Amino acid sequence: MPNITYVLIAALLAGLLSLMVAIILIRDAKSAQYLVRFGTPFAAGVLLMAAFRDLLPHGVEDYGIGTLNATLSAIILFFLIEKGFGNFHHHHEEHLGSTNSNTAQGWLFLIGDLFHNTIDGIALGTAFLINISTGMIATIALVSHDIPLEVGEFGIQLRSGFTKRQIIIRNLVSSSTILIGATIAFQFGETIEVTIGYLYGAIAGFFIYIALSDIVPTIHSSENKRFGPQTAFLMIGLVFGFIVASLAHSYIDLAH
């Protein structure tokens, strides 16, 4: 069982790296557009491969059908959460080029980001409860997803009338909820009897839901060609996710 240090480092990396990239790239609107457009399909590939190459096979092999039940339950749960709180993790790349000032919209996305980061943190903390390699894979998958998301939301808040200083401070506070969620999930999971198979399934369901309910439909709606560059980046993300999953488990196996 990994100690809390791994969780803290991973959570800080996920939050601060996403925010740093957003701050750098938002200076160049064209680069930000490219990252959101092509980074999100790449993230979908990483998330899907992490779920189907790492989490579900290991969960089913070791813990049986309960893992799949947890996956379905997680997908339904996140669907209900999103219905209740609004579209809290959508990228809205079409808004990056908007010049409309709408402070209420900026606050709405900031609140959604707080909730989204908390969920990310919980997923990250529970991934490290399984083992270090699964935690590493979850970290890479979430960072791949959060960087273009952060850029998109940074742009939305900027065009909603917030200053860059206000956005940076508020997004730092928002990013801290990743650390809070991860720490609570890890510490709470260690103090009670948790069926690891359910954790495998729940994290897999979270990854699958984000990829298939959010990112893939965006590819369908925004890509003019039948098989365009966004589809290609989805495939690249799948390959990258496969390599990461294989290397992470090989490294841990050798270490043991």
Structure description:
With 256 residues, the chain is mainly α. It has one domain. The chain has helices at residues 4-25, 29-63, 66-85, 103-130, 132-159, 164-191, 196-222, 229-255. α1 (4-25) runs antiparallel to α4 and α2 (29-63) packs antiparallel against α5 (132-159). It starts with a helix and ends with a helix. Mean pLDDT is 78; it is low at 91-100 and 252-256.
Summarize the structure.
The chain is an all-alpha fold and 256 residues long. Helices cover 84% and strands 0% of the residues. The protein has helices at residues 4-25, 29-63, 66-85, 103-130, 132-159, 164-191, 196-222, 229-255.
What count of helical segments does DSSP give? 8
Radius of gyration: 18 Å
Helix and strand composition category: mainly alpha
So what's the overall shape? globular
Uncertain stretches of 5 or more adjacent residues: 91-100, 252-256
Termini separation comes to 12 Å
Largest sheet geometry? none
- Give the overall average pLDDT: 78
Element order: H for helix, E for strand: HHHHHHHH
The percent range for strand residues is: under 5%
Q: Compute the number of structural domains.
A: 1
